[in-house]
Amino acid sequence: MNEHAIATRPGVAATTQQIARADETVVFDNVSKFYGEVLGVNRINLTLTSGIIGLVGPNGSGKTTLMNLMTGLLRPTEGTIRVLGIGTDEPTRLFRLIGYCTQWDSFPRGVTGYELIYGLLRVHGYPHARSDELAWEALERVKLVDAAHRKVAGYSKGMRQRVRLAQALAHKPRVLVLDEPLNGLDPMARAEIIGVFQGWAAEGYHVIISSHILHEVDMIADQVILLSGGYVVAEGEIGGVRTDIEEHPIQVLIRCDKAPILASKLFEHDHVVEVTMHDDRDGLLVRTKDANRFYLALNELVLAHDIEMETITVADADVRAVYQYLIGTEGEATR
Questions:
Q1: Domain positions in the chain
Q2: Max CA-CA distance within the chain?
Q3: How far apart are CA 24 and CA 10, in angstroms?
């Protein structure tokens, strides 16, 4: 069970503290979704706390299905989902808790940015004055005030992405569900929007992000969930996930003054799978099946042969490498 999970021993009632924590989490309890004979997601058990959570996986891995289930747009075939204590079969209450920015780039014909956000708030019962106030706050947050009365059809791709984010943020939800929210944004806009996400997470909100920009997921996510074929294949902090994958070699970059000697000695250890010498013969790329034994052996060799170390770096502690180890894909993990 991951460290965020909430559970009690069989026959022991949950404490008041545990019940309170359950009302602050998004819980998937043995959730499956099938589209006829086609698997969407299967046997998903997750407990998501506040902070930024990254969903990573290739096409067809189940990320969008998971998000649609979480927001109540899909009903699970089996299992239950509760968002901060509210079931996904309660759409009116769920709307007030969740803001959803989908990947779909389509809008009602002729609508302006302001009208898009204001209209959605009115549909969901907010009075005129409050809808107007929230719409302008959301447009300000994503830097679209100057374009508020322009038609969305005339927006650039980046502006359309930002107005979708404004729509998701407008009613100040406690859970933000964002499907590829950084697509189409230039570097400055991307940095600003990431700042918005980090600010909401710092205030105790849930920010659940699907993205194929892996270095940004690494940078901003407190927890990463890796999906493949409708299953969760790993979850947790990237460093922790990587450490737990004991059956897959870890890669370590080493720069030192006696690389050839170190290479020959490392080859004598059965946990070392491969050693590749750099062209300048001052560095090594080492693949080992046991990081703990590797570092112990490295310490001994450095002392025994008076090796001066320049750098030691784990070469694959990012989402892409972890994902490739888990499911054997090549290239970047994508939606």
A1: 16-237, 248-334
A2: 77
A3: 22
232 phi/psi in degrees, rounded to 5: -80, 115
> Which residues lie closer than 8 Å to 104 by C-beta, 6 or more apart?
none
| Cα 124 from chain centre | 28
Q: Are 240 and 286 in contact (CB under 8 A)?
A: no
Taking CA atoms, 205 is separated from 2, 51, 63, in Å, by 20, 6, 20
- The domain defined by 16-237 folds into Rossmann fold (3.40.50)
pLDDT in single tens digits along all 335 residues of the chain:
333 333 333 333 333 344 435 578 999 999 999 998 889 999 999 999 889 999 987 778 899 999 999 999 999 999 999 999 999 988 888 888 999 998 888 888 899 999 999 999 998 889 999 999 999 999 998 899 999 999 999 998 888 988 999 999 999 999 999 998 887 676 677 778 888 888 889 988 899 998 765 566 777 888 888 888 898 888 877 666 655 555 566 778 899 999 999 999 998 999 898 899 998 899 999 988 887 788 889 989 999 999 988 878 766 555 566 666 555 544 443 33
Q: In degrees rounded to 5, what are phi and psi of residue 268?
A: -75, -10
Residue whose pair of structure tokens reads 């209450």 in the numeric block: 93
* Helix, strand or coil, per DSSP, at residue 253: strand
CATH value of 248-334 in 3.30.200.20, 1.10.10.970, 3.30.70.100, 3.40.50.300: 3.30.70.100
Read off the pTM.
0.68
Cα of first residue to Cα of last residue in the chain, in angstroms, is: 26
